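Hi V.,

You were right to ask for the full record rather than a summary. Here it is.
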Amino acid sequence: MSASPSEHTPSLYDEPGPRTRRAIRLWSIVAVVVVVAVVVAAGVQFGSHGQLDADRWSPFLTAGIWQYLLVGLWGTVQAAALVAVLGGAFGLLLALGRLSRNRVLHGISTAYIEIARTIPVLLLIYLMLFGLPQLGLNFPLLWKLVIPLTIANAAAFAEIIRAGILGLPAGQTEAAVSLGLSRGQAMRLVVLPQALRFVTPSLVTQLVSLVKDTSLGYIVAFTELLYRGQVLAAYNHFLIPTFVVVTLIYLVFNGALSTLASRLRRRPGKRSLAEPTTSIPVVGVPVTDTKEPHHL
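Predicted structure:
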């Protein structure tokens, strides 16, 4: 009896067993109860201090305030989109460099990824804001946010893509080479399309983290959602209602991305892949270079 295609589709994540699934359900219930309790306690505290009075929330029913906040959301989307495109392209090059047989390219790519993953993004932003202008390099506000986030997220994208490539059977490359393709062509035409489709849910999840990181734009006074919320709170003096509304906007936006990632992760594969001959790497767990089956 032949197995279904989804049974042969490799996954970046270990399938949890019955005990793990029960533990996940239990802790999910506990987490929901804790969150509800915190929300109720916060509501009681807000109510006792007059933060739930109608006059504090009625301004947020006007179109002007929503237009003001949505301009900030558009700035968040712009910054996140730029970082996603630039970081994704740079991350792809880093992933291929780390898989390269060229020792120099492999060493440079590995060093960049390891260093970029350890440097705080906030430090990079301060460098863009205070350090580079002293050297005569003064970028527009948008790029003072985009460049540091691209530097940091490129390393994360690189590791996700590399894990996807290593998750595919090595026989895919060998079969393509046997058909007359060079190893570079096999990587570009055979391996990469499957690997990118394979890791799409993880890339979307990284995009959620990236959207949250754009809130650091307030440091450089870039017009993103959190910065607009700060300016609005300083203007109307409704600190808690303003940031509650800003939080809800983030929840809706990132919740939509998280839902998309979950659906992509649960979607059954349309094509069957051969059983992998190596262990499947897990995102977030370092992958050793001793058994990398795909090389350029």
